[in-house]
Amino acid sequence: MTYHVTLIPGDGTGPELIAAARRVLDAIGVAIQWEVQEAGEGVMAQEGSPLPDRVLDSIKRNGVALKGPITTPVGSGFRSVNVTLRQALDLYANVRPARTMPGVRSRYEHVDLVIVRENSEDLYAGIEHYVIPDVAAESIKVITRPATERIARFAFAYARRNGRRRVTAVHKANIMKFTDGLFLKVATEVAKDYPDIAFEERIVDNMCMQLVQKPELYDVLLCPNLYGDIISDLASGLVGGLGVAPGANIGDGMAVFEPVHGSAPKYAGQNKVNPTATILSGALMLRYLGEIAAAERVEAAVRAVIAEGRQVTYDLKPQPDDPTAVGTKEMADAIIAALQ
Ligand code: NAD
């Protein structure tokens, strides 16, 4: 059977990372027909929107996409394409595994976290405005029962499906009694339907400290949108950096896979950055498609190349200016060789 997958190269370092991931996935032998759809800064200049309808239509048609990072202008300019895409397709669950890997330098061992981040509301609802231009601004934080219930159910079902033991809900309900209070209340209610999975809650500031001190104690972290965004970068840092952190945005019958990291524009076109996060996002996609054996082969090949530590990019070397670091393309070549 042939899978039809939308491929969004993105911008900045995105195109070179997606090219690397595509080569690895093509080498695995699963029949994938790629439908390339450009989005981002360059498209904005040509088509007047950084996320034209043709991109969304393609994902809706295929049900699955692999995406490179896309730059978001800070402070002004167009709204984040990444956020718009997740909202337009109602990809409500953002799943970001963070696991220590031999060969990736980290201060920790035995970290194996999965951040399940609510993707559709909270402060990302985009409801903000100036009360007095340049003097006072307001942003509205939206938390609803239906959105919280579906992300909580997703987290518990994910834990059950993947042999996980514990879900920790992350919140600031001591201060935001209505919004985060509702999130915590609904998560606690949903937990009762999953008695086989342990449930606990942590206030977000304490959660950050606990993660830095003893990350190996935690398992699945259920987070509202903003805390999930921050904590997933923290978790990436715990296991060795953004270069190795994959992600998935999942809705009902639709999913977009992308690295946690951004477009790292200062390295664009230099064949320098680490393709691992994008390649492992491709492996998550294979799992989603039910191609478990193929996903495991990709993951094993990535682990082997990283554990050997020779043909890896600068960020995985002891010193960032290590002259033996290889480029994006060469690391992908090594992973393809390790697949054989
Ligand atoms: P970034 O993740 O692009 O880069 C931060 C730093 O992390 C880089 O300078 C680099 O040192 C390191 N890094 C990132 N990816 C790496 C890789 N693959 N290999 C090695 N090192 C890597 O974060 P940023 O600079 O804050 O954001 C740049 C742009 O990306 C912004 O416009 C931001 O909005 C956007 N962004 C997009 C997404 C997305 O597409 N989903 C996610 C986050 C940020």
Q: How many helices?
A: 11
Shape: globular
What pattern of helices and strands is seen along the backbone?
EHEHHEHEEEEHEHEHEHEEHHH
Number of strands: 12
Class per helix and strand makeup = alpha/beta
Q: Can you put this structure into words, describing what you see?
A:
- 40% of the residues lie in helices and 19% in strands.
- The chain has helices spanning 14-27, 41-47, 53-62, 81-88, 145-161, 179-191, 204-213, 225-238, 276-288, 292-308, 328-339; strands at residues 3-8, 32-36, 64-67, 93-99, 112-118, 128-132, 136-139, 166-171, 198-203, 220-223, 246-250, 255-259.
- The strands form two sheets. The protein has a ten-stranded mixed β-sheet with strand order 2-1-3-12-11-4-5-10-8-9, sandwiched between helices. Strands 6-7 form a two-stranded antiparallel ribbon.
- α1 packs across α9, α1 (14-27) runs parallel beside α11 and α5 packs across α6.
- The longest helix has 17 residues, at 145-161.
- The chain starts with a strand and ends with a helix.
- The model has no long low-confidence stretch (mean pLDDT 95).
- The structure holds nicotinamide-adenine-dinucleotide.
- Nicotinamide-adenine-dinucleotide binds at residues 69-72, 82, 242-243, 258, 261-266, 273-274, 277, 315.
Quick summary:
The chain is of the alpha/beta class and 340 residues long. Helix content is 40%, strand content 19%.
List the helices and strands and how they pair.
Blueprint: E1 3-8, H1 14-27, E2 32-36, H2 41-47, H3 53-62, E3 64-67, H4 81-88, E4 93-99, E5 112-118, E6 128-132, E7 136-139, H5 145-161, E8 166-171, H6 179-191, E9 198-203, H7 204-213, E10 220-223, H8 225-238, E11 246-250, E12 255-259, H9 276-288, H10 292-308, H11 328-339
Parallel strand pairs: 1-2, 1-3, 3-12, 5-10, 8-9, 8-10
Antiparallel strand pairs: 4-5, 4-11, 6-7, 11-12
Helix pairs in contact: 1-9, 1-11, 5-6, 7-8, 9-10, 10-11
The structure holds nicotinamide-adenine-dinucleotide.
